[in-house]
Amino acid sequence: MQFPYQKFEFNIKPQEPLILPSYKGSTLRGGFGNAFKRIVCAIKSKECTDCILKEKCIYSYVFETPPPSDTKIMRKYTSAPHPFIIEPPPEKKRGYTPEDELIFGLTLIGKAIDYLPYFIYTFDELGKMGIGRGRGKYELKEVRSGAEDKVIYSSDTKTLRTFKTDILSFNSVFTNTNTYKPKSLTLNFLTPARIIYKKHLILDLEFHILIRNLLRRLSLLCYFHCGGDTSGWDFKGIIETAQDIKVKKRNLKWYDWERYSSRQETKMKMGGFVGEITFEGNIEPFMPLIKAGEVLHVGKGTGFGLGRYEIK
To answer: How big is the CA angle at 29 (ends 24 and 287), to the nearest 5 degrees?
Structure first.
């Protein structure tokens, strides 16, 4: 199964002092959402759920992501996983001057890759509106394609160059090997992971819980954004096999942070766990899933950059 995606790198230059939170995912995602709706929404006075244009609207597809009326899955849900991930810069610094630069990542999935020009234009306009405390302004200097590490947009030309698309393949995800080869795998969670099991956020991560969340996220992204058919995925068999993988070492801690939702006019807690965990067992059959999660994150709040991990 082919799973198209593309990672981009946005480089912005402050035009005046910027004061941002230590975790910038909420600022970038929240600012993008407000600017995006202002730019592309045709009926701004209505919520997406009540809008006649919701199934054909770019804002609704990217930011609200309602399941289509003819969907075969998630009929009871109001939204599917978003087809984008904003990866904030890892540094904790809060103050930026015109002598600095700020680089953040954007991953687009499936059909959303075609909407890259909207993301570029929106982040460019957001710079004129301002972000952070005091609404400091910035200029979008350039955008690079991660696959080729080349500049595909710059503020000098204001034109978008062609780029290649990366592909994740799931052909071997469900092929279990007959030979048992004990192996350890260490994952380092770089941003808070909000993983839910039995309706509760968890800290004591188990391998089968990770796999359950990856299966759910990846299958829904594949179905809604890549036109894939996930009916052949052996969810039950994969989860049962995953329960044989044990935790060898767990060094996870809870990281609390809050964001202000302008739409709900309230502060929202967005905590999750960070740190390292090592699993031991026959991990090889699960590596395509694990590697896909390294690109596409896991858990809730991925649009803010949450649930990012690296394989060590």
So the answer is: 85
Cα 231 from Cα 219, distance rounded (Å): 9
Q: Which amino acid is present at 304?
A: F
pTM given for the model: 0.91
pLDDT in tens for each of the 312 residues of the chain?
Answer: 778 999 999 999 999 999 999 999 999 999 999 999 999 988 877 788 788 887 888 998 998 887 777 767 666 666 789 999 999 999 999 999 999 999 999 999 999 999 999 999 999 999 999 999 999 999 999 999 987 889 999 999 999 999 999 998 865 445 554 444 558 999 999 999 999 999 999 999 999 999 999 999 999 999 889 988 888 888 999 999 999 999 999 999 999 887 666 665 567 778 999 999 999 999 999 999 999 999 999 999 999 999 999 999
Strand partners, 112: none
- CA atoms within a 13 Å half-sphere pointing along the CA-CB vector of 159: 3
Question: Which residue ranges form the domains of the chain, and what is each CATH number?
Answer: 2-167 (no CATH), 171-311 (3.30.70.1900)
Residue by residue, DSSP assigns 105-116 as EEEEEGGGGGGH
